[in-house]
Amino acid sequence: MEKVYKKPESLNDTPFGYCPGCMHSTISKLVAQVIDEMGLREKAVCVLPVGCGTLGCHTWNLDMICSAHGRAPAVATGVKRCKPDSFVFTYQGDGDLASIGLSEIMCAANRGENFSTIFVNNSIYGMTGGQYSPTTPRGDYGTTAPYGNFDRSFDIAGLAYGAGASYAARGSAYHVQQTISLIQEGIRHQGFSIIDVASVCPTYYGRKNHKGSAVDMMKWQKENAVTQEQANKMTPDELRGKLIIGLLHQVQYPEFTYEYEKLIHRLAKEREANE
Fold first, then answer.
1. pTM metric for this prediction
2. Fewer CB in a 10 Å sphere around the end CB: N or C, the chain?
């Protein structure tokens, strides 16, 4: 019988430890699949945060480093400096990246660091008890926003683009094939890339905001996602509550590690000439 599917080698046999319906498991599997298909497992280094994504250290079959809360981009920068030929990526949630780690991700985008960030955005602090996060929609509830969130939610992909990211995209846990393609293209891109993946947290965000089951929350993604091209033709009222997915921004800037190496070689030659 022809084999039509096998578990990615970049996943080990440990069952996922996420809550039922959490899309971290799906997104983790997609990342492992992409790494296998692109032949990157032997040179991959994943930098994990503090948060639900930390559980990846039990399920991924590749080199990993667990960083302090929000500091994954800083650690990834150091790894890429020391091992420029490796494939380095961070895997972070909104409670980590968009809050305590916001300066790290924006500075990495600004410098054009040559690593990729998979940003799993479920609009809530999942591991620590359902507190509202910087990406919780205005008016929605969390354990620390019992009367609704007054803050406007951050558009992390847009902020990263404004800071200088040369590749910014948004996928969703429902639109699997598109998300795979966006991650692949982000990895191929020379320079900093961020892939914002809309996820769901039925345990905290779903219950607090009466979103129904995980299936209901995935159905919402299916029915409310629009492409950038579609969004450009819609009015602000029509766009309200929609999820814009696809490639959001891509340009080519000088890649930091390459430019840094050029500087080192130039200074070395100047030193030799002066000796």
1. 0.92
2. N
